[in-house]
Amino acid sequence: MDRMLFLAMNGAKHVEWQQATTANNLANVNTNGFKAEQVSFRALPVIGDGAPTRTYVVDNTVGTDMTQGTLQQTGNQNDFALGTPGFFAVQAPDGTEAYTRAGGYVADSTGMLRTRSGLPILGTAGPIVAPEGNQIQVMTDGTVVAIPLGQANPTVQTIGQIKLVNPGDRAVYKSEDGLFRMNGGGTAQPDQNVKLVVGAQEASNVNVVDSMVQMISHGRMFEMNVKLMTTAEQNDQQATQLLSMS
Hints:
By secondary structure, this protein is an alpha+beta fold. Helices cover about 25% and strands about 30% of the residues.
């Protein structure tokens, strides 16, 4: 069978994977703090007798676009966004420390601060728990204070400090659950230069126009590879007919 068939089949497969990544970016265009994944193609030489002149094209995820999304003022004191590069720490479902930029919190029935998706927000000394009957307030440096309700001169109590980190874009990778983790494991150290913007949310940094153009390009590339497979099949049929006639 013509080798072109295998090359075109491989190309179509990886274009489809790349299209899935772009589609996932578009699906999260309204997800707060979402960072778009970047993909590209790379050439992979074929190893073997008579094959050095041929290359496969494979999809390669080159990383995550860490460009800051637009900060949208909400006026809700339970919302916060990161106004600088970096992340804040959360406890992942598997119990490990992970990082995100999707700010905002809710207090559960025990007073524990959680993200809107339900993950415990980690402080420098572990999960942050507010005492009952108190109003919670988050400061720009991540400090969390509790203000007793119903008192004329309430005593403000510091109950923790959100762990803010900035290990650098190349030191982290994006997991399948959308959370960021340190390359090689471990945890990041707190960084006092990371600041919060209270009463705001960071929008997704997905560029809708660019992503739509990419989707169209992926579709045309997939169609081209399918046509190449059809041509290879037709060539094979014609060659078989000529052999049978000879």
